[in-house]
């Protein structure tokens, strides 16, 4: 008879209690139920937000013992071991560096900084402090994606020749969609490059390997939007007849990429696209990988399916639809058999699990601050290329999980 490990309590702090903050809290709470064998018991200690109603919600509904308007109180709390940072983009670097200096392991949403320099500053602070970090690249945790990565790593597709990735969303397709902080360069940095393009490139690097060069173009489809007061709504809000303000970053981005010599797809080329104004796709996050012996396709809107074609000599060429199953990734922790769907929230539970396993000294399968720096380097390179029309080289950064098998 196997004895379950004695529970290890991990004190959790949360900074910003919006949609993503709530999702982090729920992921921590689900951990003992989904992964009882780990013996990890997250304890919701303290949550911070500048909006009092959100702080009250964190205590009354989410279950945090304490609440505050000052994130510094979260970082100073002696019972907090790990911190989730879910604040708007322009606060990520400030809070991430402060968390590192406070000696707190942190799980931070992307983009970590408004460009490579800010992200690198957070990375350097985390490395110096020796804290464990995890980044919100949740799509890589889909069991179908984990299976795709394994097929590429095991050479089942042969030599990888080309890759197509895209993330098309319609959250800003409404012309009267609110001018939230996401459209303000000072607050958000780049637009769809940091928001969605970075997810697409992370998936490319996770499945295939490091991208070495990029050339890109961008466009802003809606130059003005109705203004929205900070903290009064989200970028999904629609405002009729409102005062207009300028959109300061891009709505669409596209890039040609070359994979580096350390990639599983060494020498492969590809395309990456992202849009926040697409009409039709709502969360059309897609990757296609082509090799000399086969290919595969995955789309988040059908996240529990992977289309696979192996072999060039089939009498009937075409794709087989493979359902996610207990054989792939962490699927068995959520569903008992193939055909039972997982969802977006489950991917955040997997992310929380990988984070806390790493924090407690276990295997480090979590994305980390080096992955964030690599994504930021790609975003910066794409932005520079869009301005100059020239190819930009991207450094293969040490410490990323992109090259791991």
Automatic annotation (TrEMBL):
UniProt source species: Sinomonas puerhi
GO MF annotation, one: oxidoreductase activity
Top-level taxonomic group: Bacteria
Protein name as annotated: Gfo/Idh/MocA family protein
InterPro entries: Gfo/Idh/MocA-like_OxRdtase_N, Gfo/Idh/MocA_oxidrdct_glycsds, GFO_IDH_MocA-like_dom, NAD(P)-bd_dom_sf
Record carries keyword Oxidoreductase: yes
Tagged with keyword Membrane: no
All copies of domain Gfo/Idh/MocA-like oxidoreductase N-terminal, residue ranges: 11-137
């Amino acid at each position: 008879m196997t004895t379950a490990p004695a529970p290890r309590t991990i004190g959790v702090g949360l900074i910003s209690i919006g949609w993503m903050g709530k999702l982090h809290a729920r992921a921590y709470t689900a951990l003992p139920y989904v992964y009882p064998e780990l013996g990890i018991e997250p304890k919701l200690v303290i949550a911070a937000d500048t909006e009092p109603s959100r702080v009250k919600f964190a205590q009354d509904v989410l279950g945090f013992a304490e609440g505050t308007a000052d994130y510094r109180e979260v970082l100073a709390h002696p019972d907090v071991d790990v911190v989730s940072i879910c604040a708007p983009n322009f606060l990520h670097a400030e809070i991430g560096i402060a968390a590192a200096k406070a000696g707190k392991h942190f799980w931070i949403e992307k983009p970590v900084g408004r460009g490579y320099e800010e992200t690198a500053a957070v990375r350097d602070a985390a490395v110096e402090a020796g804290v464990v970090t995890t980044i919100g690249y949740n799509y890589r945790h889909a069991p179908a994606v984990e299976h795709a990565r394994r097929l590429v790593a095991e050479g089942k597709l042969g030599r990888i020749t080309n890759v197509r990735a895209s993330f098309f969303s319609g959250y800003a397709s409404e012309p009267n969609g609110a001018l939230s902080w996401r459209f303000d360069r000072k607050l958000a940095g780049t637009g769809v490059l940091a928001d969605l393009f970075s997810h697409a490139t992370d998936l490319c690097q996770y499945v295939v390997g490091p991208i070495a060069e990029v050339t890109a173009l961008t466009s802003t489809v809606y130059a003005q939007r109705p203004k929205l007061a900070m903290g009064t709504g989200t970028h999904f809000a629609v405002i009729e007849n409102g005062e207009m303000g300028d959109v300061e970053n891009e709505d669409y981005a596209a890039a040609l990429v070359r994979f580096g010599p350390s990639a599983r797809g060494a020498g492969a080329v590809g395309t990456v696209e992202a849009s926040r104004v697409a009409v039709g796709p709502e969360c059309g996050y897609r990757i296609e990988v082509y090799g000399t012996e086969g290919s595969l396709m995955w789309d988040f809107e059908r996240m529990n399916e992977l289309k696979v074609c192996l072999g060039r000599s089939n009498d009937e060429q075409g794709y087989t639809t493979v359902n996610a199953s207990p054989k792939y990734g962490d699927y068995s922790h959520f569903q008992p058999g193939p055909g039972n769907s997982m969802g977006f929230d489950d991917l955040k539970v997997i992310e929380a699990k990988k984070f806390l396993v790493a924090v407690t000294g276990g295997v480090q399968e979590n994305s980390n601050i080096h992955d964030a720096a690599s994504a930021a380097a790609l975003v910066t390179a794409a932005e520079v290329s869009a301005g100059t029309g020239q190819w930009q080289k991207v450094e293969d950064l040490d410490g990323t999980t992109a090259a791991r098998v």
